[in-house]
Every structure is written in C-alpha cells, then in structure tokens.
Amino acid sequence: MKQVEPCSDHVSTWGEGPVWWENALWWVDIDGKQFNRLVPDSGDIHTWKMDQRIGFALPTDSGSWIWGGDHGLYLFDPATGASTPQVDPEPNLPENRFNDAAVSPDGRLFAGTIALDKTDGAATLYRLDKGPVCTPVVKNVTNSNGLGWSPDGGILYYIDTPTRKVRRYAYHDGTLSNPEGVVDTNPVIDASPDGMCVDAEGHLWVAFCHGGCVIRFHQQTGEVLACIDIPAKETTSCCFGGPELRDLYITTGVGEGDKKSDGRVYVVTGLDVPGLPQVAIRK
User: Fold this and answer.
1) Distance between CA atoms of 138 and 5, rounded to whole angstroms?
2) Residue ranges of domains in the chain
3) CA distances from 76 to 52, 82, 101 (A)
C-alpha cells in the first residue's frame, strides 16, 4: 500500500533536483540558495549555503559535485564547501540561469537553462564537454526541465515546461536525434510538467508544478499509469532512492498561502517498481 509522508521538518523555499547518492538524499533549494543532504536512517541534515540561486547539483566519479546557477557551472567539494567556477555559456543573457540537469548512462552531464523573463526560445539544453565547454544540444527552448534516460540508455526523455509535453530523442554517444512527442499532458492536468525520473520498467514519473502530484506515464503510449497526490501544490521533481530504489522522493516549493505542508521533501513507499541508480558524471 502506497504511503506519502514528509521526510523531515526541513522546509525549502523552492526545493528541486533530488538525487539519491551514497545512501543519502541530496537536493537544492533554488531561491533559498542552498544545497542539502539528508541521511534518512539517522535524520541528519547538512546544508551548504551558496552565493546565488542553484538549479541543480549532481555527483562526479571523483567525489566532487557539479552544480549550475545564475552564473554558469561550478565544481563543488562537499568536504570543504568550496565552489570553483567552470564555465558560463550564457553571460550575455542575464535573465537566464541553469535549471534542471541529469547524467546520461555513459556519464555525460546534460544541463539546461531557463529564461526567467519567459522569453520564448531564449534557453538551451547543453552537454558539458572537455574544456570545460557547454555544447548546445537542444536550442530554442524556454524552460529546460526534466530529463531521464530509458533503462537501456538509448532514449532521452525531455521536458520544455511551457510546451506541457514530454519529447523523446534517440541517444547515442552524447548525441540526440529523431525527436518526437511521447506525452501530451494538456488533456491530463492543468499544471506544468517539471522534474522527471524513469523507473526500471522504462516508464516516466513527472512532477507537476501547481498540480500537487506526480504522474506515471507509459513511455510509449503516454497513458496515465498512476497518480500520486502530494499535500503541497508546488510539486517540483522526483527521484527513486532507498536501499532497493523502491522509495520515491519528491521535492516541493512554498506556494501562495505558505501552508505548513509546502516546501518539504516527501517520500512515497509501497511502490511496485524500483527506479534506476544515479550515474556519476565521468570526469
């Protein structure tokens, strides 16, 4: 039986980007300018304060993390709390910042920007390459958001939030091709598709901002397979975690009215399917 409950009393202004790594849940607070780690077994929470909004943070295979914010990408050392600038692909676009990101099965970082002034087509999805350099892979988007790969690594699923659709691309060796629509959320819910993860069966779990839920969609037909209601309207993203990757962790933000249920991380237990393990960025 599915159960939904908060992980702790910690409240994020705008929680996002949950990651299960080294038996802990890591997530960012975009507007709170914080990076957080929760160890569920002990309840211990550690918070690192950043000097700007932080859209995502993902682990590397060297023990460091890479995060994206208002001014590009940074290398982060959890042991010292120090951040080192790496690359800023959009210094000429002050209304843009990095938003959501994910790591491909072959260890490449894909990270997208958001046009905060909602200028249509002003944002981009990038691939981080050696240099470091950000290589555009999907241009003319507005709010680059959820990403996830199929279990065999051959398909990337991608959300540009204002379209309210999930697209898929054939994926091979860092390149994307053959884009096509797979899910149109407009007939399903009047809300914005935000973060996303993929389960071991290849189906898509999409968090809906302003919708207070996470919906599981069939990866080929777009059929709704399940809907999990969350007691916070601003549901932002999700990831699988726990000992067998059978728990679904969901981040939320503080919405209008500032309810006590807003801004918390929730965990859903009793699911029938596990998720896929987090991949580290290959340095």
Assistant:
1) 36
2) 3-269
3) 14, 6, 16
169: Cβ contacts below 8 Å, ≥ 6 apart: 155, 156, 158, 176, 177, 178, 179
* pLDDT tens track for 184-208: 999 999 999 999 999 999 999 999 9
Helix (H, G, I), strand (E, B) or coil at 30: coil
Q: How far apart are CA 114 and CA 123, in angstroms?
A: 5
* Cβ-based neighbour number of residue 221 at 10 Å: 10
Please, what's the b/e burial string for 1-33 (b: 16 or more CB within 10 A of its CB; e: otherwise)?
eeebebbeebbbebbbbbbbbeebbbbbbbebb
Pick out the chain residues at pLDDT < 50: none
Q: What is the pLDDT of residue 2?
A: 87
CA distance 161 to 165: 7
Query: Can you spell out the DSSP letters for 219-265?
Result: TTT--EEEEEE-SSS-EEEEEEESTTS-EEEEEEB--TT--TTTT--
**Contact (Cβ atoms closer than 8 angstroms) between residue 143 and residue 160:** yes
pLDDT reported for residue 1 = 75
Q: Is 194 a catalytic residue?
A: yes
Phi–psi pair at 162, nearest 5 degrees:
-60, -20
- Residues 208/196, Cβ–Cβ less than 8 Å: no
Which residue in this structure is represented by tokens 């929760």?
Answer: 38
- Report the candidate in 175, 174, 182 with the shortest Cα–Cα distance to residue 198: 182
**Catalytic pick among 100, 194, 199, 262:** 194
CATH class of 3-269: mainly beta
